[in-house]
């Protein structure tokens, strides 16, 4: 049977406020009888609690929340009401800690609403972290680095093994292990992965390159050339073959120099002029060559300064 939007929007509120359908009043009822008192909020797991009494979950695995998604959710709640309560656990001094539903809570804050429907449950720190991670994985999914950091947090903060995390999350141990390997990548590559510029498949291929400098260079080339995972695999095989032929065991200084030279090439290509990068761990200089005022104007326009 079709349900109107107005009923959908108030469905959860009706459940919380008293539950069932209203009892019809008989026509013979005394008209002067005082109205019944409002039904109290039930003591069960679902309650209306003050938005201001909620604090974020310190084990929230999601590092970034898109403001546009919060805005969209706020508009939906304003139109249809909250269709699924958040999950919290009680703290001292009439406060509650979020377990799941931070975006719904933030949307209520944005709308200026004073209360929010919540399921209140007792949970340990470990259980709260696990539920939060599962909720995020099942809803929109975390980016691969957020997922890996979530697993790492469970293992570090609660002394769990990969097997224990696998049991509690409900994912194969091999999947947990492969995701955790992503944290061995350079911070820059992790950033590309978080932003969706590289796929998990690309990241696993890049892990096959032992030299961090070569791995970083290849990651940039994969993005710039729009390489598929299969093309990236061919590049890794080529790098390994060349390293084997050279007996390549470069020291860290040589590896850093390779990265600097690669950056020089990228800048030179981007600006269509010679660029010299003088780099040390503490400071450096970028020297850009130009020929006359017109060429300088061109470079300024290309860099967005004019």
Automatic annotation (TrEMBL):
Species: Cerasicoccus arenae
Signal peptide: none
Family recorded in the similarity comment: Belongs to the ParB family.
KW Transmembrane helix (keyword) present: no
Keywords, sorted A to Z: Chromosome partition, DNA-binding
Gene Ontology, cellular component aspect: chromosome
Protein name: Chromosome partitioning protein ParB
Domain of life: Bacteria
């Amino acid at each position: 049977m079709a349900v109107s939007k107005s009923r959908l929007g108030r469905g959860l509120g009706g459940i919380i406020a008293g539950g069932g359908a209203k009892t019809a009043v008989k026509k013979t009822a005394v008209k002067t009888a005082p109205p019944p008192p409002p039904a109290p909020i039930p003591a069960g797991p679902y309650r209306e609690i003050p938005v201001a009494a909620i604090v974020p979950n310190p084990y929230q695995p999601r590092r970034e929340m898109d403001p546009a998604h919060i805005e969209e959710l706020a508009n939906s709640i304003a139109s249809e009401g909250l269709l699924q309560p958040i999950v919290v656990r009680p703290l001292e001094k009439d406060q509650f800690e979020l377990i799941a539903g931070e975006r719904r809570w933030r949307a209520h804050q944005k709308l200026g609403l004073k209360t929010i429907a919540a399921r209140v449950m007792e949970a340990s720190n470990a259980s709260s972290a696990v539920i939060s991670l599962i909720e995020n994985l099942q809803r929109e999914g975390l980016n691969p680095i957020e997922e890996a950091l979530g697993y790492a947090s469970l293992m570090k903060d609660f002394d769990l093994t990969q097997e224990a995390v696998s049991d509690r999350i409900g994912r194969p141990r091999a999947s947990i292990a492969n995701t955790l390997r992503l944290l061995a990548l350079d911070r820059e590559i992790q950033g590309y992965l978080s932003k969706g510029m590289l796929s998990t498949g690309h990241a696993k291929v890049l892990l096959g390159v032992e030299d961090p400098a070569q791995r970083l260079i290849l990651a940039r080339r994969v993005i710039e050339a729009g390489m598929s995972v299969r093309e990236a695999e061919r590049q890794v095989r080529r790098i390994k073959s060349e390293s084997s032929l050279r007996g390549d065991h470069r020291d860290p200084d040589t590896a850093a120099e390779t990265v600097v030279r690669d950056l020089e090439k990228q800048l030179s290509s981007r600006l269509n002029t010679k660029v010299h990068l003088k780099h040390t761990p503490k400071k450096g200089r970028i020297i850009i060559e130009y020929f006359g005022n017109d060429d300088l104007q061109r470079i300024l326009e290309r860099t967005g300064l004019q």
